[in-house]
Amino acid sequence: MAEAVQPVRKPRQKRGIETRQRIIDAAQALFSRKGYHATNSKEIAAEAGVAIGSFYAYFKDKKQLFLEVLKRHIEATKAMIMTRMQEIDFSSESVNEAIYLLIKALYKAHDLSPDFHREAEAMRYSDPEVAQLHDVFHESFRTDFAALLDSFKARLRVTDIEAAAHIVMAASEEIVHSTKIFGETQIEEDRLLSGLADMICRYLFK
Fold first, then answer.
1. 14-60 with 69-204: one CATH topology?
2. Could you tell me which residues come within 8 angstroms of residue 64 by beta carbon, excluding any fewer than 6 positions away?
3. Is the pLDDT of residue 91 over 70?
4. Which homologous superfamily does the CATH classification assign to the domain defined by 14-60?
5. CATH architecture of 69-204
6. Structure confidence at residue 203 as a pLDDT band (50, 70, 90)
7. How confident is the model at residue 128, as a pLDDT?
8. Domain boundaries, the chain
9. Mean of the pLDDT values across residues 80-106?
């Protein structure tokens, strides 16, 4: 696909901002429905109701647009999880219940766009830029979770909080992805999340 012959611009006027947003929304819908490789720039422009020239006015190519969609998806996912984390009163809830609620928040955040998430997961194994965005998000979330664990230091059984945060996040992601993203199990959601919360509590706490 040919690249733009004009510099990519950042819109400042309302109309330009709305046009760029329509392109992003259209791209996410098509990437979710058809996948990255089966979608082209002309289809995205048509879905957004704009001319192909408008596409190239705001995005260099399809790859740059995919990364923009992914950034938006990551930011929305993290915001949803962090908002729920701040709502949980870890001082009044039982440890098991607090961990369950946190896992539930992670699970619900994957309702935002599971089809696009699935495509992004596939892309991160073949594209270094997608992998980098994924890694930055996970490192940020691990840091936040490690800080939360550190506030419970006196109650923890584990001593390496950084490693523990990584282990808990990896286990949680595996369960959430296997159910919400890839549909690999028919076991009821609550049974899986309750079991995961129990396992994590037994691992982390005295």
1. no
2. 8
3. yes
4. Homeodomain-like (1.10.10.60)
5. Orthogonal Bundle (1.10)
6. very high
7. 96
8. 14-60, 69-204
9. 85
Distance (Å, rounded) from C-alpha 199 to C-alpha 205? 10
Structure token digits, residue 122: 């596939």
pLDDT tens by residue, 26-72: 999 999 999 999 999 999 999 999 999 999 999 999 999 999 999 99
Decide if 61 contacts 3 (C-beta within 8 A): yes
The whole-angstrom separation of Cα 181 and Cα 116 is: 9
